[in-house]
Design goal:
The structure holds two protein chains of two kinds.
Chain A: H1 2-30, H2 48-71, H3 74-79, H4 84-115, H5 117-121, H6 125-147, H7 161-169, H8 175-179, H9 183-198, E1 222-223
Helix pairs in contact in A: 1-9, 2-4, 4-6, 6-9
Chain B: E1 4-12, H1 21-30, E2 43-47, H2 59-62, E3 66-69, E4 72-75, H3 80-85, H4 96-99, E5 103-105, H5 108-112, E6 124-126, H6 148-152, H7 156-159, H8 163-172, E7 175-179, H9 188-192, E8 198-201, E9 207-209, H10 219-223, E10 229-232, E11 237-240, H11 245-249, H12 255-258, E12 265-272, H13 274-281, H14 289-296, H15 303-311, H16 316-324, H17 326-333, E13 338-339, E14 350-353, H18 357-365, H19 373-382, H20 384-394, H21 399-420, H22 427-432, H23 437-449, H24 452-455
Parallel strand pairs in B: 1-14
Antiparallel strand pairs in B: 1-12, 2-7, 3-4, 5-6, 8-9, 10-11, 13-14
Helix pairs in contact in B: 13-14, 19-21, 20-21, 21-23
Classes of the chains: A mainly alpha, B alpha+beta.
The structure holds protoporphyrin IX containing FE and iron/sulfur cluster (2 copies).
């Protein structure tokens, strides 16, 4: 059992990270053409206009919540005099709402994907793998959040899961902290690792190409037909 | 003065017979692939009519092009932050239903249907999902006014005219409007692309999509007011009219021009001052946009312009070509060509000679002599309805320039009739439209005789003045992902590349490259998109890492 725990919580996270980083780099180098959202809005717009933003904005809040919950140690909030009760109430309400929005959005996305023949036909093999994983990750996460709300719950993930997560970055994984966590948490973490490992090989890569550079770019882009560069004459990096 | 060159087009609408040869040859060349079934880089619409996609001119709905906001130009769909906030679902994106649901026929049924009393048919099948489908709309459903007044009532231009006008007008005439991408001087498709994948080429002004850089945010589709960017639903990338750049580079006309049955398309170089474009596109009154755009064009016969052009890195043969440019002659010398929808403020570069024939037809139909100058000028003046409609198309509603262009055409007709019938010539006809006899003859030669060599004056792509940085010589116009490419003065561009923008002002509206910079030519290594079915990944479509062997990824 100890070996299994070490493998799952001590080794697997690093393997996942390697796959995520190396896979993305490989794909960016060899299949840049594949970096796209593969939008299906051309086929169906009415539902997507609700589902797309609901899912993605919900997800952005969920990600923010994970950053706060996993990376901010309890000692810090204690020092800021944020009471345990206040913290968890906040996590439950804000986190729960965001999680539910994400789930609802995802369900709606899945619904239109299955019900619209054109989108169904455009669904790739990688989509078929990603969707179930995505749904179960969100479900497990929501269950964990909800379980924290029940009166009987005594588990404080900030003293368990979070400690493990931070210890990963210190290259000294606290395997026991995770091994003792309730099942839903372990399931959620495992599924999340699966999602990250799949990430580079699916449409999820679109999340890595958020075009923030747009905010500081002139509207009209010019390029030369030769090597494409105008102005500096510097070669493109990595070519 | 900085000078830039653009290969532009003029179409003489009087000669379009609506045969759709241009659309078909274009489709065979560029969009006969899975994912682009519904896309017609060139389409021919009957006007009045809905157009393709349906009602695309209604910018209240589609929000294409630019608008003035406190004197500054912003994309009508909103500025940068609003675009980013709407990445997850683009509220203004047309769906396939707005274009049409492409279909094919189940021909197999003709041979495999079980024996029966009826002759088997080939029932329609959706080209998207393969299911049986009903054909309810097509790329040209209202061709030749098909569909009648009900369809026409939805024409956004007619909607701006009164009911009375509308009915009269329908009795009066129809004409064909072939449309391609306008390769605008101020392209809003480029402006709304968050990835910087769309760009305007420095050398010839052709607007292209970098397929490797496009991330499928599908903003360009709604950003273009002419709806001339299409989303390939199979690859998840935007595609658009390429102005057949591989042909243009070799000095050949575009496929639509080459195959045009009416021989009504003209291709040639226009020189313009890029620093004027921003101001011209933001004049307050929409009706001034036509004149403002004319003001951006430079006269290649002016020695100072020629000097400045060569100082800006434009080769001598391009300046020469600009002097002989039929497009320049029709747009600025004779002023018979007009821009399509200048009110979108994109400064379009495919211009149109408005059709005179409907006026002539109406005149002849009412028992008059359709080529008698007095009657013709009078008719142009009194046929307010077609004039108003043409003005909505070409001059933001100002009938003045349309009337002037039509009168010039009418004068040419009347003059040439006298010549052909051996009648006495009347110099006042030419004078009345500000031309002289040689001018009229030259206009006649250009519009009526329309010799191949005079219709297409296309210099070949220029050889670079800046050495190829890597010395490898490989590169193509769709190349260059992640490169700095798009900035003047070497500011690095590109999403997520930790860019160094230096002193660059992102709000500077136009940032054309500085003179003489980065113009190199590399024809080698370009992928032949003509043979590409959109499925595989042909060598050269993608950047190749130096010194590595390409392997095909599994996904
Ligand atoms: C802020 C970064 C992100 C942006 C800008 C973004 C944007 C988009 C866009 C434009 C689409 C296409 C919608 C359409 O037109 O069909 C899409 C689809 C999708 N995105 Fe994202 N996304 C982001 C992050 C993420 C993340 C982090 C995930 C998942 C973990 C995700 C999962 C998905 C999925 C599953 C779809 C497919 C929806 C469907 O069509 O069924 N996205 N995203
Ligand atoms: S007409 Fe062409 S260049 Fe102009 S905005 Fe549309 S796609 Fe862009
Ligand atoms: S080929 Fe020429 S004549 Fe025929 S529809 Fe096209 S533009 Fe008109």
């Amino acid at each position: 059992m100890r070996h299994l725990h070490t493998a799952l919580w001590g080794v697997l996270p690093y393997l996942t990270l390697v796959v995520l980083v190396a896979g993305t780099a490989w794909r960016y180098r060899y299949d840049r053409f594949g970096f796209t959202t593969r939008s299906s809005q051309l086929h169906e717009s009415r539902l997507l206009r609700v589902a797309g933003p609901l899912f993605h904005y919900g997800l952005l809040f969920v990600i923010a919540g994970h950053v706060a919950g996993l990376l901010v140690p309890e000692s810090l909030t204690d020092r800021l005099h944020v009471s345990e009760h206040l913290y968890h109430a906040n996590a439950l309400i804000a986190g729960g709402t965001a999680g539910l929005a994400t789930l609802a959005g995802l369900a709606l996305l899945l619904h239109r994907r299955l019900r619209t023949p054109a989108i169904r036909a455009a669904t790739s093999r990688s989509d078929r793998v990603v969707y179930p994983v995505l749904i179960t990750v969100v479900l497990a996460g929501l269950t964990a959040t909800a379980s924290g709300a029940t009166a009987r719950s005594t588990y404080d993930y900030r003293l368990g899961v979070s400690v493990w997560f931070r210890s990963l970055f210190a290259l000294d994984p606290d395997v026991t902290a995770m091994a003792e966590a309730p099942l839903v948490y372990r399931l959620h973490a495992l599924l999340a690792m699966a999602l990250f490992a799949l990430w580079p090989f699916t449409r999820l890569v679109h999340a890595f190409t958020v075009p923030l550079g747009y905010l500081v770019r002139p509207y009209v882009v010019y390029r030369s037909r030769g090597r494409g560069e105008v102005g500096a004459g510097a070669g493109r990096p990595g070519r | 003065m900085r000078v830039m060159a653009q290969v532009a087009m003029v179409m003489n609408l009087d000669k379009c017979i609506g045969c759709h040869t241009c659309s078909v040859t274009c489709k065979q060349t560029w969009t006969n692939r899975t994912g682009t079934e519904y896309a017609w880089f060139n389409n021919v619409e009957t006007r009045p009519g809905l157009g393709y996609p349906r009602g695309h001119e209604d910018q209240e709905k589609w929000r294409g092009g630019w608008r003035l906001k406190g004197g500054r130009l912003v994309p009508r769909t909103g500025g940068r932050a609003r675009r980013l906030a709407r990445l997850f679902a683009n509220p203004e994106l047309p769906t396939l239903d707005d274009y049409y649901q492409p279909w094919t026929y189940d021909y197999e049924n003709l041979t495999t249907a079980p024996l029966g009393d009826d002759i088997p048919t080939a029932p329609p099948r959706s080209a998207i999902d393969g299911h049986p489908t009903a054909i309810t709309w097509g790329p040209n459903w209202d061709d030749d006014l098909g569909g009648g007044p009900d369809q026409l009532a939805a024409d956004p231009l007619l909607a701006r005219m009164s009911e009375q006008v509308r009915l009269d007008y329908e009795r009066a005439f129809m004409f064909y409007l072939p449309r391609i991408c306008e390769h605008c001087l101020n392209p809003s498709c480029v402006a709304v692309c968050p990835s910087g994948a769309l760009y305007k080429r420095v050398e010839d002004g052709i607007v292209l999509v970098d397929q490797d850089r496009c991330r499928g945010w599908r903003m360009c589709v709604s950003g273009c007011p002419y709806k001339k960017v299409y989303f390939n639903h199979a690859t998840g990338k935007a595609e658009k009219c390429t102005f057949c750049y591989p042909r243009i580079e070799a000095g050949d006309p575009t496929v639509c021009s080459e195959t045009c049955v009416g021989r009504l398309r003209y291709l040639g170089v226009m020189l313009y001052d890029p620093d004027e474009v921003g101001a011209a596109a933001s004049v307050t009154d929409e009706k001034d946009l036509y004149e403002a755009q004319l003001g951006c064009f430079l006269d290649p016969d002016d020695p100072e312009v020629a000097r400045a052009a060569e100082a800006s890195g434009i080769p001598h043969d391009w300046v020469e070509a600009a002097r002989r440019s039929p497009v320049h002659a029709l747009i600025t010398r004779y002023r018979v060509a007009l821009p399509l929808h200048p009110e979108y403020r994109t400064m379009p570069m495919v211009w149109y000679v408005p059709p005179l024939s409907p006026v002539v037809d109406a005149l002849t139909g009412s028992g008059h002599d359709g080529e008698d100058p007095a009657a013709l000028f009078g008719a142009i003046d009194t046929l307010r309805i077609p004039l108003g409609y043409l003005a909505e198309l070409f001059t933001a509603g100002d009938p003045g320039p349309v009337e002037a262009a039509l009168c010039r055409l009418a004068a040419m007709r009347s003059h040439m009739r006298r010549v052909n019938l051996g009648e006495e010539q009347d110099p006042r006809i030419a004078e009345s439209v500000g031309l002289d006899e040689p001018g009229i003859l030259e206009l006649y030669r250009l519009l009526a005789l329309a010799k191949y060599d005079e219709r297409y004056v296309i210099p070949t792509a220029y050889t670079g003045s800046v050495p190829d940085p890597g010395g490898t010589g490989a590169g193509c116009s769709l190349d260059g992902v992640g490169g700095p490419g798009m900035m003047p003065d070497g500011a690095e561009g590109g999403p997520g590349l930790g860019s160094d923008f230096g002193e660059f002002d992102p709000d500077a509206f136009h940032a054309p490259p500085t003179a003489g910079s980065g113009t190199s030519s590399a024809l080698r290594g370009r992928v032949n998109l003509l043979n590409w079915n959109g499925k595989g990944r042909p060598d050269g479509l993608f950047p190749r890492a130096r010194g590595t062997v390409r392997t095909e990824p599994e996904l």
